[in-house]
Every structure is written in structure tokens, then in C-alpha cells.
Amino acid sequence: MQATILDLRYRMRDVLKALDRRESVRVLYHGKLKGTIVPAGTGSGKSVTEHPFFGMRRNDKRSVEDVMQELRGGRYGAL
User: Fold this and answer.
1) Does residue 71 sit within a domain?
2) 3-state DSSP call for residue 68?
3) What domain count does the chain have?
4) pLDDT value at 45 more than 80
5) Cβ neighbours of residue 60 under 8 Å, at least 6 residues apart?
6) 17-29 per-position pLDDT tens digit
7) Domain enclosing residue 13, as ranges
8) What is the predicted pLDDT for the residue at 67?
């Protein structure tokens, strides 16, 4: 389904019905695509544990706070 900004304002019920039918809604502004609204729950269906980065630091003995501080870095860099 395609919907303009005015459709989102005045015909939201139709947009919600399309989402209930598991349709994606393309949002147009001045005839140009601005974004897409997808129905909830249309993710990949994979478990978090199936992600390739899951458990990559399982042998790291540092605390989460220490690792996050290292990743974020200091405000002015290492002195």
C-alpha cells in the first residue's frame, strides 16, 4: 500500500488495516518515497544466540564497565 502524509492523517484506519493484513505501507511526501512502515513482528525470526557476534567475548574476564569504558574511550583520548 502507498500512503501520503494526508492519508496518514485522515485515513489512518486504512493504514492500520493494511498493517493488519501484513502489508508494508510506503509513505510518500510530494510523490517521493520517504519511508516504509512494516508490520510488527516481521523480523528475521532468528534467535539472538544465532547471531555471529553472540559470545565473542565469553573468555574475557574484565567487567562490562571496563570493556565499555575501553570501547568508548576517554573524552580527550589517551594522555
Assistant:
1) no
2) helix
3) 1
4) no
5) 67
6) 999 999 999 999 9
7) 2-37
8) 85
